[in-house]
């Protein structure tokens, strides 16, 4: 009988091989490491001001419209769509609702007709488009997007902007498109009040709309759309369509949309100032926005607020007015609505998928 002699080294060598093999197999069969949820985020606003005198049903309607607006953004972002598309889609919902100082619900000038401004900006390329003093455009934010994408310019105003709209197949709407009884009554009251004061400071609710978004590719975008301030002079343009004042986006710092008395936001280049503080001073977004809105603007009696978002998905919504309606979306579909008054409890809902 042949005796197989096993060297004393054989057993430890086999054991080591088995252990190595097992480790290899375990690596092959183990569940893949959980992938981090794709990060995206969005914040929208429905205007800064005083909502105390706004009937609760109207606050409710605005909240519902903002929920619908941010859901439109969510459905784009969760499928990997761009922040620009999300911003435009959300703003269009609010423009079309007739509930805000924007699009269909735009406030009137002293002459009793709406004149609207809007801007959109791409944080990746710094491309931007805006329109000002348009009177027959149902969706100024859409026209601003076309200015950005189809012209070599940034800002088109008045008739030139409307001629361009026609060239892009956009139908001009009649002034009656913007008529609603609530706004007309409010306009008449404002007309009476304006006889007593020429102050720019507003003590009513406002309804400029804006959005900032971060998409899964890490790109920021911002947009704002407004009918401007109550009883503004015909031809007056506010901060919303001025890149750097009421609207700004840069992937290296942040995206901002502002609301408030635009003259202060223009003089202080508010949106760009917040982003440049983040970029050059390396302060947090929260601190930068707070310093500008709650210190610099307050010192000048500049009323309003901003929504701001950075490339990490951090967001902030400071305002120095009694209220500013906002909705914030997280990648898990949670939407938090707040700000119609400083003390109102936030309402959290889940986005309809
Ligand atoms: N900022 C806008 C403007 O001055 C108005 C507003 O946000 O209420 O045109």
Report on the structure:
The structure is a single chain. The protein is of the alpha+beta class. 35% of the residues lie in helices and 20% in strands. The strands form two sheets. A nine-stranded mixed sheet has the order 4-3-2-6-5-1-11-12-13. It has a four-stranded antiparallel sheet with strand order 7-8-9-10. Helix 8 packs across helix 9. The chain is globular, with a radius of gyration of 26 Å. The N terminus is likely disordered. The structure holds aspartic acid (ASP). The site of aspartic acid has 15 residues, from strand 8.
Number of helices: 9
Q: What strand line-up does the widest sheet have? A: 4-3-2-6-5-1-11-12-13
**What average pLDDT do the residues reach?**
89
Ligands, ions, cofactors: aspartic acid
What class would the helix/strand composition place it in? alpha+beta
**What is the count of distinct domains?**
1
Kindly provide the name of the CATH class.
Answer: Alpha Beta
Tell me which CATH architecture applies here.
4-Layer Sandwich
CATH superfamily: (Glycosyl)asparaginase
The gross shape turns out to be globular
Percent of sequence in beta strands: 15-25%
Describe the main β-sheet briefly: 9 strands, mixed
Report the helical percentage. 25-40%
Report how far the terminal alpha carbons are from each other. 76 Å
Number of strands: 13
Q: Can you tell me the CATH topology?
A: Glutamine Phosphoribosylpyrophosphate, subunit 1, domain 1
Which parts are unreliable, with pLDDT below 50 for 5 consecutive residues or more? Answer: 1-7, 22-29
């Amino acid at each position: 009988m042949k005796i197989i002699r096993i060297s004393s080294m054989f057993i430890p060598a086999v054991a080591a091989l088995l252990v190595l093999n097992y480790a290899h197999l375990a690596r092959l069969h183990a569940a893949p490491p959980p992938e981090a949820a794709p990060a995206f985020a969005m914040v929208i606003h429905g205007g800064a001001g005083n909502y105390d005198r706004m009937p609760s049903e109207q606050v409710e309607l605005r909240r519902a419209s903002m929920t619908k607006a941010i859901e439109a953004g969510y459905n784009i972002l969760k499928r990997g769509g761009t922040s620009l598309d999300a911003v435009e889609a959300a703003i269009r919902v609010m423009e079309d609702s007739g509930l805000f100082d924007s699009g269909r619900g735009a406030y009137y000038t002293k002459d009793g007709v709406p004149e609207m401004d809007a801007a959109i900006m791409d944080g990746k390329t710094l491309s931007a488009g805006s329109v000002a003093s348009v009177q027959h455009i149902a969706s100024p934010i859409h026209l601003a997007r076309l200015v950005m994408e189809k012209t070599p310019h940034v800002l088109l105003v008045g008739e030139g902007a409307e001629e361009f709209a026609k060239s892009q197949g956009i139908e001009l709407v009649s002034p009656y498109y913007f008529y609603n009884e609530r706004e007309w009554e409010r306009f008449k009251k404002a007309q009476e009040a304006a006889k007593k004061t020429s102050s720019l400071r507003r003590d009513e609710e406002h309804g400029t709309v804006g959005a900032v978004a971060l998409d899964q590719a890490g790109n920021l975008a911002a947009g704002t759309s407004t009918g401007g301030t109550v009883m503004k002079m015909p031809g007056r343009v506010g901060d919303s369509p001025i890149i750097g004042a009421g609207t700004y986006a840069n992937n290296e710092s942040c995206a901002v949309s502002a609301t408030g008395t635009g003259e202060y936001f223009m003089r202080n280049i508010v949106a760009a100032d917040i982003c440049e503080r983040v970029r050059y001073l390396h302060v947090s977004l929260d601190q930068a926005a707070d310093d500008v809105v709650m210190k610099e603007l307050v010192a000048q009696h500049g009323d309003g607020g901003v929504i701001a978002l950075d490339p990490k998905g951090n967001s902030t919504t400071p305002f120095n007015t009694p209220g500013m309606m906002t909705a914030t979306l997280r990648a898990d579909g949670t939407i938090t609505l707040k700000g119609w008054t400083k003390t109102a409890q936030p309402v959290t809902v889940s986005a309809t998928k």
